[in-house]
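Job type: complex structure
Entries:
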Amino acid sequence: MKLPPLNALRVFLVAAEHHSFTKAGETLHLTQGAVSRHIQTLEAHYGLPLFVRQARGLTLTPEGVALFPAVRDAFSRIEAASEAISRRSRELRVKASPSIASRWVLPRFTQFRNRYPELMVSLVTVTGFDPNFKSREYDISFQACETQEPGLIYHRLRGARFVPVASPALFKDKPRPTIEQFLDYPLLHPSHEDQFWSQWFALSGMNPGSSIEAYAFDTLDLAITAASRGMGITLAEESMIADDLANGSLVQLSDVALVTSWAYYLIYPQELATLPSVIAFRDWALSEFSDSPPPQATL
Amino acid sequence: MKLPPLNALRVFLVAAEHHSFTKAGETLHLTQGAVSRHIQTLEAHYGLPLFVRQARGLTLTPEGVALFPAVRDAFSRIEAASEAISRRSRELRVKASPSIASRWVLPRFTQFRNRYPELMVSLVTVTGFDPNFKSREYDISFQACETQEPGLIYHRLRGARFVPVASPALFKDKPRPTIEQFLDYPLLHPSHEDQFWSQWFALSGMNPGSSIEAYAFDTLDLAITAASRGMGITLAEESMIADDLANGSLVQLSDVALVTSWAYYLIYPQELATLPSVIAFRDWALSEFSDSPPPQATL
DNA sequence: TGTTTACCATGCGTAAAATTCATGGAGCAC
DNA sequence: GTGCTCCATGAATTTTACGCATGGTAAACA
């Protein structure tokens, strides 16, 4: 393949559009002389003139006329493809369940946006999980799961540990309840399905039998919010209540923690692994949401 | 318009085709390091990787995959257009009538081809004249004419001057005929239409009346050829018989020359005036077929 | 007609970019 | 481990691009 000098071609394109070397130079932030030389280079390459230089403006030779649309189309094709892949590197859609979004991600999100101001990060809080990212509604996902799908990359963030918490206002002047006294209060359940409370009581050495009555909530987040408003005692995932414990809106009522078989992961498709936006978010998320130290809110 | 570095794009294209920087370097006559740097430039421009470097071969990232066909198509578009206009600069189709072709052009044609070996020159000998070059069957034309069409460029080569010639063998041992004795021999007429012989006799001060019987030929060339074979006396255009006079196959029988109102021109469309091939041929033809000195054959 | 004006061309010096060379390092095969 | 094959990279060099200033030309102007 014997291509003409490509930079000269771009100069040719602009000069042909302007019918002027001088104006082309202004557009390209070049001097008129530089434009003239580029055109000369191109004309030397083809061995024929592309412009007819007249004192009264510049016109294209038939060869220049033939070349012009090809160059214009070629460059606009490159421009379109470049624009498409550039956009992908600047945008990032992060998916998280409502609980994780409000309790984990949102408190730290501004920090990330400040560190990477050129990234257009958006938070998607669809419930449910598209296991293969087929819908392409998001690029990277915070997700609790037990099994792994092929084609996806999983970074384990932390296991889930549930501890009992309640608003201090719930007890007013009374002392905080012992485990045995939990049943005197409304028990809030962070799920409709899992039997967190009975598992936790079993772990504590109690067997309350079928006497557990709990108000079930859709999400972990709602149960925590309800508890902090004094509606009762809930089991809360440890990493989600750092803020509330710190500002006193919740108190932890026991050190007994229910550890689930599943864990929280950061997940993204293998083919996005090279995107700088994905890499940046992954590295940041792994350092922020890592296992050992319960994360501190940094608003 | 914000285009990526174009030379780097070409390197990217070749590297993507070879799945190897080293092989791309060989193809492009560059070192492997230079290719590596070009790719780095491009990746820095986009802010994302285009290749996945593995010890076992090179693969494209999804962004590289997206970019590849656009670059390939864009460059092949440029290449096609370049090829088209390059070909136009290397090819030249010269039109001449059979007479001019065989008597003027052909004897000197090899000289031109030797001087411009890169030009693909072809000789088109259609009879008749497409006055506006509309058929596009030829680029430049030797043509006898009186009027000029707009949009065409005319270079006058020489007026036509007809003188009587014959083969010396026609007269054997007899002396060459005087003008009065011409009628004793067959008169060959180089045209079906024009009355060259009667005009020429008038010019010589003779009035042979209607007694002129002439064998008419289609072209000037045929009449000359017939005369050189001893078939009779013909009027021949001066510039077409230099060879024959020089090698003795024809002798000129009088200095009286019939000058026509028309002349021979070299003609080409204005829009081809910038083509180097046209310019080269025009300059050569003007010096070769110029008016004053009767051209010498240079085979 | 002479002058101005608006172009493009070009010689020269400099700044920037491309390229090479030599070397280093990482993964794979044996 | 050892060799092999790639790609990355620091430093030096060559090449190229560029700006500046100037010159030339043809149209427009007055």
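Summary: Chain B has two domains: 6-89, 96-299. The interface with chain A takes residues 1-4, 6-7, 9-10, 46-49, 52, 61-63, 66-67, 69-71, 73-75, 77-82, 84-86, 88-89, 271-272, 274-276 of chain B (CB under 8 Å).
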